[in-house]
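Hello forum,

I keep getting stuck at the same step: I have a sequence, I want structure tokens, and every attempt I make locally crashes halfway through. Rather than fight my setup again tonight, could one of you with a working pipeline run this one for me? It's a single chain of 252 residues.
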Amino acid sequence: MTPPPTPPPPLVTTAYERGIATLTLDSPANRNALSARLVGTLRDALTACAEDPSVRAVVLTHTGTTFSAGADLKAPASPYTFVALMRQIVELPKPVVARVSGHVRAGGLGLLGACDIAIADRGSDFAFTEVRIGVAPAVIALPLLARVEPRAAARYYLTGEVFDAARAAAAGLITEAADDVDAALAPVLDGLRRASPQGLAESKKLLTVGVLDAFDRYAEDAVQRSASLFMSAQAREGITAFLERRDASWVL
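Reply #2:
Ran it on my machine without issues. Output:
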């Protein structure tokens, strides 16, 4: 008999400790790129956390040297699906804390923006790379523009340059740049464990009003803009150049 096919490895793993559910993006081979399967698996894991009364808060972290490289250009999640994931994080009745130790690019920054608290070690770095492949950070702007300092957003959206954790914290992209990310995380998790579930849920509602307003107002436009840009000739050239590891035709 032919043996049954081996199931694909999980792209998100879950662990529990004293009321904290840790969801780990576990697709290091493609730098935790946001494929349709990874996004769907993460959404299912978040739903389970929301429904589990023993979970007080969620930590979102990663294996490998990259938190997330952004969209998986070979098997991408649809813009609607990714918008739904970011909104789910914002609306989750439990705090979501990002723990970062590595690189964060493009759509990965949307995940950070959706989280309530984000702590990264000082070796981490960040970049809005969309502009360099001929598109724009359209859908990830939904959680980010309410959180990131406008001048910093203008610089990093337009240049695509890499910036460090200290600059990310100054810009409001992350909460703290830490020498030891787990030591910095410890008092945060202790505080969340001491808080009541109702207090956390209601406090989070107050904090996310502006972010959810951006989703309500601009999500459809952002999705349509993103889809249009990805179908453009410049995006085709930019993505091809990226996959071929060469400069795009417009680079001077």
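The radius of gyration is 18 Å. If your local run keeps crashing, start a new thread with the error log.
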